Amino acid sequence: MSVTLKINGETRTLDADPESPLLWALRDELGMTGTKFGCGIASCGACTVHLDGVPIRSCQTFVGDLEGAEITTIEGIDGKAAAAVQAAWNELDVPQCGYCQSGQIMAATALLAETPKPTDEDIDAAMDGNVCRCATYARIRKAIHLASDKMEA
Amino acid sequence: MLHLLQQPLKAAMPTRRSFLKISAGTVGGLVLAMNLPRATASAAEGEFIQPFVHIRPDNTVVVLSKHFDMGQGTASGLCSLVADELDASWEQVTVEFAPSNPQVYANSLFGVQGTGGSTAMANSFLQYRQAGAAAKAMIVAAAAKKWSVPAREITVSGGVVSHGADKSATLGELAGLAANEAVPAEPTLKTPDQWVYIGKSFPRLDVKNKTVGAPRTYTMDFQRDDLLVAVVARSPRFGGKVKSFDAAESKKVPGVVNVLQIPNGVAVIATSTWPAIKGRSLLEIEWDDAEAETRSSDAMIAELKDMTTRPGVKVREDGDVDAALEASARVIEAEYDFPFLAHGAMEPLDIAMMFDGETAEFWFASQIPTIDHNVAATVLGIPFEKVKINTLWAGGSFGRRAQADAHPVVEITTLAKAMQAAGMAPAPVKIVWTREDDMAGGYYRPMSAHRLRVGLDEQGNVTAFKYNIAAKSIVKGTPFEAMLMKDGVDHNMTEGAHDTTYAFPLMNMDQSFQDTKVPVLWWRSVGHTHTAYVMETMIDRLAKEASKDPVAYRLEMIKDDPRKVGVLKLAAEKAGWDTPLPEGRHRGVAVHKSFGSYVAEVAEISFREDGTVKVEKVTAAVDCGTPINPDNIRAQVEGGIGYGLGAILRNQVTLVDGVVEETNFDTYEPIRMSDMPEIEVHIVPSNEAPTGIGEPGTPPIGPAVANAIAAAKGEWATSLPLAKAGLV
Predict the structure, then answer these.
(1) B127 and B61, same structural domain?
(2) Domain boundary residue among B379, B408, B432?
(3) Residues of A in contact with B398 (CB under 8 A)
(4) pLDDT band for position B363 (50/70/90)?
(5) Do B693 and B608 reside in the same domain of the chain?
(6) Residue A100 lies in domain
(7) Residues of B in contact with A58 (CB under 8 A)
(8) Quick one: which of A2, B226, B240, B659 has the most CB atoms within 10 Å?
(9) Which residues of chain A lie closer than 8 angstroms to B224, CB-CB?
(10) Could you give a GO molecular-function term held by this entry (chain B) (predicted)?
(11) Do A43 and B666 touch (CB under 8 A)?
């Protein structure tokens, strides 16, 4: 089956099994490997992408449902929030193994785009679905606050 | 597991003994056949090439990391050692993972090339500084000749080589000339006051790539146009074998190119990942469980507990502990049990290779390349030098990729041979473990039981300490047995207990080995994951028995261990141990030495309305010798605390009739943002040799939290995780 959608602003046609998760279409069909496979059941957030600006788990989003959708991946994020988040992540050396960080950054960017001055409770709520087994959470929290400050500056 | 290896290795390997010999990397012949990196001649015009550092004409300084990087920051750490002695600028430094070559890149503490035991910086500290200093001496010698000036008048700073105000060049401009200089045997090293990176926090080199989703970072990302992807159906019970299978439906899935039986199961091979996963879900397999582990974990724990009631292998024997207990005024008894734990690295296991019938090339995060390399050559029946391993970044490991039996290499090489036997054209193939494959696939932190009897005199002083432990040994029966077991004793199981520096007048420790097909493996901090919990909660209990403050009691008991005293005092001071707590808050402390480093942690907790525990804050103090990158030390301790906390709160892998119950993050619930306490890490200044930091933050957190709970409730949890006691 063929599905036409927008990925990072470009119109792409996917010739894939409609049951295929978007995750594998991105990684294997389009060669965009920044979006990670972590659990396959929407429990870890490593595969987070934006669908029409909203963070979703691409491992539980199926190609057959995406006709006309607008998807943004880690390779394509830009804008004030994304730039601030990536800068803050670098400034605080957030990643350790780094495997979850694409998903963390996608979730944090969506949070800041919606809530530019998040409280710790906002951060818990927005980020609890994104697992980091290196437990870099303390730095992720700091980096989100720092990114928020950067956006204001 | 060696039992998995027996089958594929049978043809190539006449005996298990010779396999062990090869796997342990002790056979000079195979190793010597490798080409060493060229000593001085440069491969490319104008390039400086030494085993640990290359300087390119474009002014890039490439450091070859003999250790893989699973997030612990070693790659950047090694770069800082070279850059410091070479006086390179941090911006011109990049890192590449070294090829597999134990003669050049062995971990000096292992004798083989490999990463683990928090040894990376400890075993490299002198070596990588020497490499940087030698390169600098050669650069200076080349500049001296070029400019016809005395070498002693030349300075190097920030990657710029200068003579006075009028002559200067970059490292890259001098690289080709320097390559022709003699390598100094003993280059002069800087004194600590001259260091520009060591001891200062410098940014990690891998962060940028990891914040933009850069391609070709992890094994999972490995791609080639002709790449095949395989997923393997493995026995749901450890030790089970395929009796028969029907792949008719699997083969109908578009993209599935073949389904082949391999010794470890049935492999579904497809043109990409999703068809392989879908194809596998349609397989029908009948398993032969005749030799499989079919017990439930309850029965296995009961067996372990029973083992601790009887004498085992003597790990430590100070004297007649039973007589001393008999003569004691009181005896404190305790029994602990710990579950299997999965490592749960974010990147599930994966490995990629290409075998053309004569040579093999691998792409994966190889944690022990010497073993992986030897096993690959052995299974494929090709010479060692026909195998090439490209090491990639690891999306975590926590011990999971330190495979003593190289099981992913065994699996993919047996698959490559099966593909060859099936007449398939040579093609690169990647095996992907799904999360379920990874989590239900064994290689766990062993489950264990511990039985303690501690004798006290009338005043509450310890008179005798008897400790029996039972678990499956991680190293017994593996290539590491010869290296890590002495006189039949497995110290990996008892580290942190038998070698305690608490001043007990008499301590005996016995160990017993459980026999099970469930494969077990090193898990971040290994034996310390359970011994620190047992020792530090027991010490808290003994302090209470002696009516003493937990910190004061420990300080009395470790007075001959000054570095332990140092971290304990620092953590207590920074946590305000002697200050009153707010209403509803409780504190607990633990101090433990592991991998040469000392860590004390004070946990501050509260209870939610439903009675569950919330860890509010952790104050840590660490002494890991010379701090190389303080910010990375803090990061590792923060992460080590989070990793240990998640496990202690709610993680366990349980078996029902031999089948794993927790197979993904929905049931093996990892620590999340809202669970994470505020963490402060304080580093003790030190000029001692640097020791490990990847693991030592983990052991104290469990007992610190348990002691805080006991401070509130008067009881120490002895069966983990804490969720079993309704505390989570």
Answers:
(1) yes
(2) B432
(3) 133
(4) very high
(5) yes
(6) 80-152
(7) none
(8) B240
(9) none
(10) oxidoreductase activity
(11) yes
User: What is the number of domains present in chain B?
Assistant: 3
- DSSP result, B413-450: HHHHHHHHHTTPPP--EEEE--HHHHHTT--BBPPEEE
CATH number at residue A109: 1.10.150.120
pLDDT value for B44: 67
pLDDT in tens, B185-236: 899 999 999 999 999 999 999 999 999 999 999 999 999 999 999 999 999 9
Three-state DSSP class for residue B77: helix
pLDDT tens per residue across span B504-549: 999 999 999 999 999 999 999 999 999 999 999 999 999 999 999 9
Residue range B382-403, pLDDT digits in tens: 999 999 999 999 999 999 999 9
Smallest CA–CA distance from B631 into chain A, residue: A93
Contact call for B347 and A36, based on CB within 8 A:
yes
Q: Is A140 on the interface with B (CB under 8 A)?
A: yes
Find out whether B435 and A38 touch, Cβ atoms under 8 Å: yes
Does residue B434 belong to the interface with chain A, where contact is any CB pair within 8 Å?
yes
Residue A97 Cα, gap to closest chain B Cα (Å): 3
- Tell me which residues of chain A, numbers 20 to 59, contact chain B at a CB-CB cutoff of 8 Å: 20-21, 24-25, 27-29, 31-41, 43-44, 46
Q: Does B91 touch chain A (CB under 8 A)?
A: no
Contacts of residue B348 in chain A, CB cutoff 8 Å?
A: 37-38
Mark whether B488 and B356 lie in a shared domain: no
- Cβ-nearest to A89 among B211, B216, B346: B211
Range of the domain at B369: 219-291+349-432
Q: Average pLDDT over chain B, rounded to whole? A: 93
A2 touches chain B (CB under 8 A): no
Integer-rounded Cα Rg, in Å, for chain B is 27
* A31, A90, A134 ranked by CB distance to B396: nearest: A134
Identify the CA nearest to B266 among candidates B408, B409, B418, B375: B418
Strands (E), B218-318: 228-233, 241-246, 256-262, 265-270, 284-288, 313-317
Report pLDDT digits (tens) over B568-605: 999 999 999 999 999 999 999 999 999 999 999 999 99
